[in-house]
Amino acid sequence: MLAVWVGTQADEAFQEAWQSDSGGLLPESRAKVYLSPKLWYLRLTVIQTQDLQFGSVPDAKNRSPELYVKAQLGAQIFKTGKCSISSSSSANPTWNEDLVFVAAEPFEPFLVMSVEDVSAGQSVGHAKIHVPTADRRTDDRAESRSRWFNLVGDEKRPYAGRIHVRICLEGGYHVLDEAAHVTSDVRAAAKQLSKPPIGLLEVGIRGASNLLPVKTKDGTRGTTDAYVVAKYGPKWVRTRTILDRFNPRWNEQYTWDVYDPCTVLTIGVFDNGRYKKDEAGKPGKDARIGKIRIRLATLDTNRVYMNSYALTVIHPSGAKKMGEIELAVRFSCSSLMNILQVYTSPMLPRMHYVKPLGPAQQDILRHTAMRIVLTRLARSEPPMGQEVVQYMIDTDSHVWSMRRSKANWFRVVGCLSRAASFARWLDGIRTWINPSTTVLVHLLLVAIILCPHLVLPTLFMYAFFIVALRFRFRHRLPTNMDPRLSYVDAVGPDELDEEFDGFPSTRSVDQVRQRYDRLRALAGRAQSLLGDVAAQGERVEALLNWRDPRATGIFVVFCLLASLVFYVVPFKCFILCSGFYYLRHPRFRHDMPSLPVNFFRRLPTYSDQIL
């Protein structure tokens, strides 16, 4: 007997019928949809304490306690600043400091607060707050209510005082749980602040080709058990694992609601190593095969992109192409006006601008949120390995890497190359390399002086034609990870080994010393560059602060004479004469620096006062 099943992914029997090439009923090889935990910022405002009862400490009456408040939510611990009080004073220690935590639903049951005595080295007392009962707010207009909690000491002090705090769950923020450059969701935590989706993202994971072997099977030949993970917003999808295939075909389709087109879809390919356990019964780790990112803003709406993308992974030995993945992607939208309206709105919710978090605090909270997502997804069944989640959300993007530093440096150079090209063109004009072009620039300068009202219209019309003509040369296909832009071939083995080294380092002392000396050399160049930039700003300030009386006196006299000259000479005439003087023929120039440049370089800086 032969049975043939024909259907689609939407059929009820599809989940059981497609397992023939994925190891049968192995839980670790099944397809699954995961959801990241819903994250909130929990703000604890420590106001003050009253009636503190200190323990039996020698010389307790003669000392001045130095106190701080420590708060703990799960593995997160934050402390306030220290506050000193006098034993003879009845003043209550006051902090008025905010401590911000990352809370994930379902919430940790209690937030534990304790008042610590630094001078005595012991805790004065502690209190617990039930987190699910905390107030929730969506903006800064309504202040959450403050509450008093009794502090519990040791057995001899059941009442050690009380603490005044304000606690609330901030629903007006978006909790950043991924690297800033790969953000896929910018919605606020509170549901009432969410707007309806503007479109739908459909991704068809068709298959992969020419995958390289990742491990050995039976110790005789190489094999790959590949599966795909796709992430957009809080939704993660994982395809089934196809065992022992170098050209697997998944043919699975998934959809996501899109709320902002300026977001990134991340797709990674991995080798499944968890369905096999070692002698101790522990599952293995999944190996990276490659990753691609697609920015939705680069896609045309309602168009199907069906392409193959190269999978490149970086090893300590260098970059290696592992194969290709074939995808079908479509970003559909029913209203173009909704998308255009999104481009005029802020990127993040309102609370990020009216009550912003500091850069250092935001980095700490981002990495805390990443760890929470790692832990929660690892508890799922089947679990998603931490190495998979870390690779998808770029948890190591902040770690020092010589390769990334070179890539970012040349990105800056690339952005400044346009200005450098314009400066070279302008220098060619003023040195009369092409006399006809210089004459035309003279005529253009005269036209600008005579008809200044046409400058802006002409400028914007010129920009319109330039950008409109470049429409023909736009990228037709979604961009992929670029090995050339990543400079994977421009770094040595030692620099790549440094990138994959853990923190703290596990390399030998000689290797660490060599890398440290290399980093010191680079930091020395950066230090000199910062000093030069600071010196230019200090020279400008030296014109006004009379640090060099003669230089500032010359500048004052110049300002007086300039005011008289500009009062007599029309401004148009000054601009025309200045332009002709700048574009004068080389035979009327000399090779030495100009008078203003000489005067500016002689102004004093604070470099000579640095030890």
UniProtKB/TrEMBL annotation:
The organism of origin for this protein: Papaver nudicaule (Iceland poppy)
Organismal lineage: Eukaryota, Viridiplantae, Streptophyta, Embryophyta, Tracheophyta
Membrane topology per record: Multi-pass membrane protein
The keyword Magnesium belongs to this UniProt entry's keyword annotation: no
Domain of life: Eukaryota
Annotated signal peptide: none
Pfam families found in the cross-reference section: C2, PRT_C
Cross-referenced InterPro entries: C2_dom (IPR000008), C2_domain_sf (IPR035892), C2C_MCTP_PRT_plant (IPR047258), C2D_MCTP_PRT_plant (IPR047255), MCTP_C (IPR013583), QUIRKY-like (IPR047259)
Entry protein name: C2 domain-containing protein
Family: Belongs to the MCTP family.
Entry annotated with the keyword Heme: no
Major localization listed first in the record, in broad terms: membrane
CC terms in the record's Gene Ontology section: membrane
Transmembrane segments: 439-469, 554-583
SMART domains in the cross-refs: C2 (SM00239)
Gene3D superfamilies in the record: C2 domain
Subcellular location: Membrane
UniProt domain C2: residue ranges: 21-149, 182-309
Keywords annotated in UniProt: Membrane, Repeat, Transmembrane, Transmembrane helix
